[in-house]
TrEMBL record:
It comes from Urochloa decumbens. InterPro entries: Sec-1-like_dom1 (IPR043154), Sec-1-like_dom3a (IPR043127), Sec1-like (IPR001619), Sec1-like_dom2 (IPR027482), Sec1-like_sf (IPR036045). Residues 572-588 have a biased composition (Low complexity). Gene3D superfamilies: 1.25.40.60, 3.40.50.1910, 3.40.50.2060, Syntaxin Binding Protein 1, Chain A, domain 2. Belongs to the STXBP/unc-18/SEC1 family. Residues 538-552 have a biased composition (Polar residues). It holds the Pfam family Sec1. It comes from the Eukaryota. This is SNARE-interacting protein KEULE. Signal peptide: none annotated. Residues 527-589, 634-653 are annotated as: Disordered.
């Protein structure tokens, strides 16, 4: 009796799969091996393209495509004159120099070179290659892949600009860094559309002031949108079969539109893993105890290749915990050998180890389940130890205008053991919802009550930098004022949704991009606030869908009713069951979203959050349109706060 963990989405038309297939079919099998005499090839990459490859493909897929050896361009390599080589490189002069060094002269390292550049190659580098007459006959292909982004998710990518928030919104006057960041970011965004052969209509968050008062920070979305538009417009004449009319939508926004999402506690399994556990990217290190030997340290990768992770990642942590135990209990109840391996009562970690020994044929499944049970258990323990239930409740109440100064002061006084980071995150939300409470010396008094450092206070001040304010000027006056654009009848950063969805407690919050995407899909996003680049040839299919035509997806069958294992605080405020995880919305929906409405791309400058990544999956199911989130990086709360401290530190110099 095996355990049903589901299966990763394998629709070839899903964003990430298109990128993977381009690598496996177009790059790793040049000319379908017509020009090669050997079926095995060497793959040579630079540090950047190694990352692209690592995010898009598994090593087994690369090997299956006929690659016998993967090499670093800048490391010493053994000559293999009987084998062909595939070069996947950025079009940089230093890379071209190394390539020519490999393939020129009487004794080239490889028989033939198939060269693929990640983005358009400058004419001067093409000339540089042509000038080496000994290399030309040895080149089997020279192509531009237009693949210069990292597919971090089935519906997400980053451009590898981890410092974009500091480089674009910090106080530095280094115009070269600023301009280079905009240029490279635009190039990498554009390659996503070149890869998919999609021509986007481009919209962006408009500057808030007029030309005379607008800061350069406020112009970032417009400048990036202009650069992307210029590049993709040229594709119409440079890329064969590239669309001549708009086929999808791209909305470019930046971190200032939503400063709460990066710091509020997100209660899904994915977000909690990255927020509370010491993870290295997607890697989780844990120990496995074996009888008669020392604990063994193992490494697990939490990503789409793990079907159990795929199912649970967007589920509320309480829901995820419940499902994990249900899966194990179901497995045990239907397997006699597993029942004999138990000590009685509920399934324990010791029971799981015995089950693995008794049922070796299921060892991989049981070990995977054991891993996730351990992770969920550790997260739930941290929730209790850190008092996150009360903190999370106050965060939600602040956002929706149901709490204020009294509650903030009360929790700061009563929870003396609250970590400095959690205090800071709470005060950031408080400052955004109640900016008037931080005017003059009020903010300093709050920080003293919270026993936070001057560096932490600088983070609160730097929120204004995300609004494009002149922090240096206000610092010289000796006072501090937060002025945000919120026009509210009461102090609230969000309005409760009235869409009938049932939610878990502590998960009312939704990122602002959720509203923007819904309005964009319905054709209701104001052009004045989000202008369009150029004049669209025609409205892309699906842009004017209304709620009646694109209605929400049917609610999936509930997993189970709450059991005694589910904490009371986690139960839905509404009746019935939970808002279920998407598992993989593309697995439960029609494979070809192109028939139902063209793709929507949203690009977040300055770092996106896991709640925003979850949102695009949720809305893909709800609106029946594939939505892809791009960003300069994916930031967890500690990373965002660290970047804000860097901005504050740079300002104080």
């Amino acid at each position: 009796m095996s355990m049903d963990f589901g299966a990763p989405a394998d629709d070839p038309k899903v964003f990430r799969n298109i990128c993977r297939d381009r690598i496996l079919k177009d790059l790793l099998k040049p000319d379908k091996d017509k020009e090669t005499k050997s079926s095995w090839k060497v793959l040579i990459m630079d540090k950047f393209t190694v990352k692209i490859m690592g995010y898009a493909c598994k090593m087994s897929e690369i090997t299956d495509a006929g690659i016998s050896l993967v090499e670093d361009l800048f490391k010493r390599r053994e000559p293999m004159p009987s084998m062909d080589a595939i070069y996947f490189l950025q079009p940089l002069k230093e890379n071209v120099i190394m390539l020519l060094s490999d393939m020129s002269g009487r004794c080239p390292l490889y028989r033939k070179a198939y060269i693929f550049f990640s983005s358009p190659i400058p004419k001067e580098l093409v000339t540089y290659i042509k000038n080496d007459s000994s290399v030309i006959p040895r080149i089997g292909a020279l192509r531009e892949m237009n693949l210069e982004f990292f597919t971090i998710d089935m519906q997400g990518f980053v451009t590898d600009h981890d410092t974009a928030l500091v480089d674009l919104y910090g106080p530095s006057d280094n115009s070269k860094v600023f301009n280079d960041t905009i240029t490279t970011m635009a190039t990498r965004i554009a390659t996503t559309f070149a890869s998919l052969k999609e021509f986007p209509s481009v919209r962006y968050r408009a500057p808030k002031g007029d030309a005379s008062t607008t800061t350069k920070f406020d112009m970032v979305p417009k400048w990036l949108a202009t650069a992307v538009w210029d590049i993709v417009s040229k594709y119409k004449s440079t890329i064969p079969e590239f669309p001549q009319k708009e086929t999808c939508e791209l909305l470019i926004v930046d971190r200032p539109i939503d400063q709460i999402a990066p710091v509020i506690h997100e209660w899904t399994y994915d977000a909690m893993c990255h927020d509370l556990l010491e993870m290295d990217g997607t890697k989780y290190i844990y120990e496995v105890s074996k009888a008669g030997s020392d604990p063994e340290q193992k490494e697990a990768v939490l990503e789409d290749h793990d079907p159990l992770w795929l199912e649970l990642r967007h589920a509320h942590i309480a829901d995820a915990s419940e499902r994990l135990y249900e899966k194990m209990n179901t497995f045990v109840s239907k397997n006699k050998a597993a029942q004999l391996s138990r000590d009685g009562g509920e399934v324990s970690t010791r029971d799981l180890q015995k089950i693995v020994q008794a049922l070796p044929q299921y060892s991989d499944q049981v070990e995977k389940l054991t891993l996730h049970i351990e992770i969920a258990g550790k997260i739930n323990r941290f929730i209790r130890e850190y008092g996150l239930r009360d903190i999370g409740q106050l965060e939600q109440d602040l956002v929706f205008g149901d709490a204020g100064a009294k509650e903030v002061i009360s929790i700061l006084r009563s929870k003396q053991d609250m970590s400095p980071e959690n205090k800071l995150r709470l005060l950031i939300i408080y400052a955004i919802v109640y900016p008037e409470k931080f005017e003059g010396d009020k903010g300093d008094k709050l920080m003293q009550l919270a026993k936070l450092s001057h560096d932490d206070m600088d983070v609160i001040k730097c929120l204004r930098y995300l609004e494009g304010s002149d922090l240096k000027k206000s610092s010289r006056t000796g006072t501090f004022s937060l002025k945000f654009d919120a026009q509210k009848k009461k102090n609230a950063a969000r309005t409760e949704k009235q869409d009938g969805e049932e939610t878990w407690a502590l998960s009312r919050f939704f990122p602002l991009i959720e509203e923007l995407i819904e309005k964009l899909s319905k054709g209701e996003l104001p052009l004045k606030e989000y202008p369009s680049m150029g004049e669209p040839s025609s409205a892309p299919q699906g842009t004017t869908q209304t709620a009646s035509t694109a209605g929400p997806a049917q609610n999936p069958a509930p997993m189970s009713m709450r059991s005694r294992r589910t904490p009371t605080w986690a139960k839905s405020k509404n009746s019935g069951d939970s808002q279920s995880s998407d598992s993989s919305v593309l697995r439960h929906s029609s494979g070809d979203f192109k028939r139902l409405g063209n793709r929507i791309f949203v690009f977040m400058i300055g770092g996106a959050t896991r709640s925003e990544l979850r949102t695009v999956h949720k809305l893909t199911m709800k609106m029946k349109r594939e939505i892809v989130l791009g960003s300069s990086s994916i930031d967890d709360p500690p990373q965002f706060i660290s970047k804000m401290k860097s901005i504050g530190s740079a300002n104080n110099k």
